[in-house]
């Protein structure tokens, strides 16, 4: 009989289908409060978590047995904090084990609109691992599918200290029990930052991978990973990132109970525009080995690069083995780092080898590095300064902080330094540098034969100050700039906003001591300079030779300088300099002129005075002095003085005049007066010899004004003759007056005698009576 045409058989099949449909569909419309309570109680007993089912709970028998829960929350273990919430949760069981053994075996878990707070603890464990362990022999797990649809996920990594938020996330792991067809797909949005504020960064995430869950080994294999993360919109202003992209490929192996990464390989590349700079990176880890007690990353390579309109940075790192006994601590005995930086202004190339310790994935300690390299810039165009350093340091990638403490050699001279850098985009430096010697002469621009150390018409270049943000101290035992030597240079510096202040600034210079401050402000147009210095016991000859290109003075000097100037060339500074300079010299000399000899000549040969310009004295001629004092006022590049006072033993000098720093011209007048206690100059007592200086500052001509001296002598002679005549006339007048007085006295006496002779003799009647 053909059962297909048997009416009873067809009726039986129809009844079975109707009953099956009713059994499968009916539970959707029936509420099982007892099921809800049993589930809540079982979860509490197995996980120590509190489950709340605010919505309905249903049981479905066909096509597969399943439990459907709506509006469900689950807490952290023994903590009321919500771990997860789902609008809809469906747990599907395998039918055959349920029929044959009566034991439910979980086949699939489907969650719609879940909100999860995933935490990776510092020890590498996750806050959901207890849910993956079988808590009862009554329920088995043979998971074939796990899906999260329109999920919101907060991923907090306490190991790395980062939090990632995912939203509108569709995560599906399907056919996990099939050794050939298991797969993973991922699609959603990602953001970083606190939930209560606008995201610091946001983008779209997508990915796929082959999934292999081996039930007997309880191992999850994720192969052929393709993960992409692309930025959407602008980042927060403080981050300054746009157009960021990250991609990862590789293979990872996880143990399932507990959930742990056990090995694999990964390649991660990224690119981003940050503050006008294009940053790229590539990480290659060809072998990952991870156990419960150790982690090893073998043959690790990490490259990072940066480009902007004017500069380029590249750094390459190779680490044979990076491993450790703890998840938060990794170490390698030898990391090799090569770094190159190029720009129109400067170039740097270094090679570094060091043991390295890595903490939390972003803190690196360079335990004992050795660094070699070279540095050059456009202000030092004729060579590269060599570096050979040893030291230790720390690198904080999250907070963008680099600290290095080094000892070694800079261009062959001993150096020790502490350098701290913050913010890789706009670097802020803290520096302490102690250098034995720095000779920049071999690197300075070539000058023409006979030229001075610098070109006064060349534009001053302050490219190095444009983005410099630094604070600290610098000591240089000896600084050499061609013929200029500065010893024991010490300064504290503050540089920011194109302005640098060196305060205090001290040095041993020109055999004396310098103390004060200096300032350059390149933010002003033209550039502003200020120099406030006190120089004590200075060798004035070498100082003036280097500063003003003249060697006319020698001796030890004390100088107080308070000068400001503006300009973009040294020639500009000479024209605009203004301020005050006070000088005191002792035991020195004025070269090129012998003023005492001029006075001796004037004293001995007054008759030859004719007012002619005297020839310049021999180069070794000099006027020695014991003390010199002068105050100079600078205004618009012209130094004026009117209180020169020089004590030179046999003579005194006073005077005043001007020096035009811009043109290098001198116009100065002095008056020389002789010491009256010197016998050979006694003839010049009370006289002054005017001496004028004019012409180029480094080779002025002088003129002794003998005509003025002759006029003074003639005036003195005339005065003496007049005084003599006046004295003689006065004497004659006195003698005449005396003679007149004598005559008058004689006449008075004679008159008195005559009067006495004319008086009569007394008579008796006129005699007085006696009693």
UniProtKB/TrEMBL annotation:
Classification via InterPro entries: AsmA, AsmA-related
Keyword set includes Transmembrane helix: yes
Official protein name in the record: AsmA family protein
Biased composition (Low complexity): 734-743, 758-771
Bias (Basic and acidic residues): 720-733
PANTHER family, per the entry: DUF748 DOMAIN-CONTAINING PROTEIN, PROTEIN ASMA
TM region(s), chain numbering: 12-30
GO cellular component terms attached to this protein's record: plasma membrane
Residue ranges occupied by any AsmA domain in the UniProt entry: 11-644
Record-level GO BP terms: regulation of protein targeting to membrane
UniProt keyword terms in alphabetical order: Membrane, Transmembrane, Transmembrane helix
Location of region: Disordered: 720-771
């Amino acid at each position: 009989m053909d059962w297909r045409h048997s009416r009873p058989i067809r009726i039986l099949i129809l009844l079975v289908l109707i009953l099956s449909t009713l059994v499968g569909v009916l539970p959707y419309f029936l509420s099982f409060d007892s099921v809800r309570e049993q589930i809540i109680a079982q979860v509490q007993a197995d996980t120590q978590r509190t489950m709340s089912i605010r919505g309905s709970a249903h049981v479905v028998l066909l096509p597969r047995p399943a439990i459907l829960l709506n509006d469900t929350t689950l807490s952290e273990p023994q903590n009321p904090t919500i771990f997860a919430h789902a609008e809809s949760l469906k747990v599907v069981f395998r039918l055959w084990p349920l029929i044959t053994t009566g034991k439910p075996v979980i086949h699939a878990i489907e969650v719609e609109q879940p909100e999860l707070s995933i935490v990776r603890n510092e020890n590498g464990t996750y806050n959901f691992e207890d849910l993956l362990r079988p808590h009862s022999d009554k329920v088995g797990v043979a998971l074939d599918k796990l899906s999260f649809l329109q999920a919101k996920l907060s991923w907090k990594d306490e190991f790395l200290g980062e939090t990632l938020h995912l939203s509108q996330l569709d995560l599906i792991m399907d056919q996990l029990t099939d050794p050939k067809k298991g797969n993973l797909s991922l699609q959603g949005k990602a953001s970083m930052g606190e939930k209560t504020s606008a995201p610091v960064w946001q983008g779209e995430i997508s990915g796929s991978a082959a999934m292999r869950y081996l039930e007997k080994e309880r191992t999850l294999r994720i192969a052929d990973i393709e993960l992409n993360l692309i930025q959407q919109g602008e980042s927060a202003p403080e981050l300054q990132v746009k157009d960021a992209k990250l991609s990862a490929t590789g293979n990872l192996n996880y143990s399932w109970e507990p959930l742990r990464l056990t090995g694999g390989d990964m390649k991660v590349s990224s690119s981003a525009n940050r503050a006008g700079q294009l940053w790229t990176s590539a990480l290659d880890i060809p072998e990952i080995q991870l156990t419960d007690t150790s982690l090893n990353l073998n043959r690790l390579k990490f490259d990072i690069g940066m480009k902007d309109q004017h500069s380029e940075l590249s750094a390459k790192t190779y680490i044979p083995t990076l491993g450790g006994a703890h998840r938060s601590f990794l170490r390698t005995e030898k990391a090799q780092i090569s770094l190159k930086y190029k720009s129109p202004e400067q170039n740097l190339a270094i090679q570094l080898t060091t043991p390295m310790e890595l903490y939390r994935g972003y803190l690196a300690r360079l335990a004992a590095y050795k660094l070699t390299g070279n540095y050059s810039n456009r202000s030092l165009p004729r060579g590269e300064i060599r570096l050979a350093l040893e030291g230790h340091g720390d690198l904080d990638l999250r907070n963008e902080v680099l600290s290095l403490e080094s000892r070694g050699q800079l261009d062959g001279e001993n150096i020790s330094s502490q350098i701290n850098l913050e913010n890789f985009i706009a670097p802020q430096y803290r520096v302490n540098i102690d250098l034995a010697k720095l000779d920049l002469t071999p690197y300075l621009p070539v000058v023409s034969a006979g030229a001075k150390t610098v070109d006064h018409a060349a534009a001053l270049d302050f490219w190095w100050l444009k983005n410099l943000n630094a604070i600290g101290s610098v000591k240089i035992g000896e600084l050499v700039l061609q013929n200029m030597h500065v010893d024991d240079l010490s300064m504290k510096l503050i540089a920011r906003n194109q302005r640098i202040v060196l305060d205090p600034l001290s040095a041993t210079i020109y055999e004396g001591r310098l103390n004060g401050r200096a300032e350059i402000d390149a933010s002003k147009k033209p550039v502003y300079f200020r120099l406030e210095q006190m120089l004590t016991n200075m060798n004035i000859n070498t100082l003036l030779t280097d500063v003003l290109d003249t060697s006319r003075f020698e001796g030890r000097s004390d100088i107080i300088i308070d000068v400001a100037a503006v300009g973009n060339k040294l020639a500009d500074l000479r024209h605009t300099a203004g301020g005050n300079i006070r000088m005191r010299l002792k035991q020195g000399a004025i070269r090129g002129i012998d003023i005492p000899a001029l006075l001796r000549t004037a004293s001995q040969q007054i008759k030859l005075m004719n007012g002619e310009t005297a020839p310049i004295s021999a180069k070794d001629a000099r006027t020695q002095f014991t003390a010199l004092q002068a105050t100079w006022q600078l205004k618009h590049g012209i130094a004026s003085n009117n209180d020169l006072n020089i004590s030179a033993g046999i003579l005194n000098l006073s005077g005043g005049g001007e020096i035009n720093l811009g043109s290098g011209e001198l116009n100065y007048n002095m008056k020389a007066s002789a010491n009256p206690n010197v016998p050979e100059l006694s003839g010049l007592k009370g006289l002054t010899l005017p001496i004028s200086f004019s012409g180029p500052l480094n080779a002025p001509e002088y003129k002794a004004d003998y005509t003025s001296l002759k006029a003074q002598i003639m005036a003195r002679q005339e005065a003496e003759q007049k005084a003599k005549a006046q004295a003689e006339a006065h004497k004659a007048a006195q003698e005449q007056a005396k003679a007149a007085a004598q005559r008058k006295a004689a006449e008075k006496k004679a008159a008195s005698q005559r009067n006495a002779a004319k008086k009569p003799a007394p008579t008796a009647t006129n005699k007085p009576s006696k009693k």
